Amino acid sequence: MMETELLKARAEDTAAICARTGRPKYLGFLSAAEAVFAERLLKNSACRTELWGGYETAERVMLGCFPDWAEDSFFPVSSVTFTYRGIDSLSHRDFLGTLMSLGITRESVGDILTEQGRAVVFVTDEIKSYILTQVTKVGGTGVAVSEGFAGQLPQSGRLAGFSGTCASERIDCVVSELCGLSRSRSSELISQ
User: Fold this and answer.
1) Measured between alpha carbons, how far apart are the two ends of the chain, in Å?
2) Distant-in-sequence, close-in-space partners of 25: CB < 8 Å, separation ≥ 6
3) Cα dihedral angle (180, 185, 191, 192), rounded to 10 degrees?
4) How crowded is residue 171: how many other Cβ atoms within 10 Å of its Cβ?
């Protein structure tokens, strides 16, 4: 997560440039916590702010500041699809590591959605063509890279169901059950 003061300064600068120039201005992909912070910070700014990550339920989103006259909210977000053999197992970490090794910053990369044999990565428009031309392997596995995505997005970020039985409704009992810890260790963590 960006340092709070740095994020504050960058978000305020983004809004100020938008207000001064009358043109949309963007701040790269933010984590969920950073997005909430920036949105609250700019709620009374002179321009309209929106968040978008390339699809409706994106976790990492870009902050867009728009002048009041702008009816449409265009975001410079593109998707890139990586396809590879189904027998190869590539994770979020493999894709992020490959992109970072190319000198791409984290704020230029949004969500990375993986499934067997395919991954869809959301990126800023300015680095899309660089990725399309430079990436041939991810985690030592050969990949084919194409612009956009076809069909549904991979569902790798879905939460799994969980059920358990707690001895009582006390928070330390619930944490103990969820994390597989002793009740005393759960109490220590809660106290911290």
Assistant:
1) 21
2) 14, 15, 17, 18, 64, 65
3) -90
4) 12
- Structural element, H or E, at residue 138: strand 137-138
24 in Cβ contact with 64 (< 8 Å): yes
Question: Contact at 8 Å (CB) between 47 and 67?
Answer: yes
Give residue for tokens 């440039």.
17
Q: pTM of the full predicted structure?
A: 0.77
Enumerate residue ranges in the chain where pLDDT < 70. Answer: 1-2, 156-162
What pLDDT, in 10s, does the model give residues 44-56?
A: 888 999 999 999 9
Give the helix/strand (H/E) hosting 122.
strand 118-124
The CA distance from 35 to 42, in Å, is 11
Give the pairing type, strands 109-115 and 61-66. unpaired
> How many secondary structure helices (H) and strands (E) does the chain include?
6, 9
C-alpha distances in Å from residue 169, one per residue of 19, 131, 179, 183: 51, 50, 15, 12
Q: How far is 79 from 140, CA to CA, in rounded Å?
A: 22
Cα-based torsion angle of the residue sequence 67, 32, 99, 154 in order, rounded to the nearest 10 degrees: -100
36 φ, ψ to 5°? -65, -45
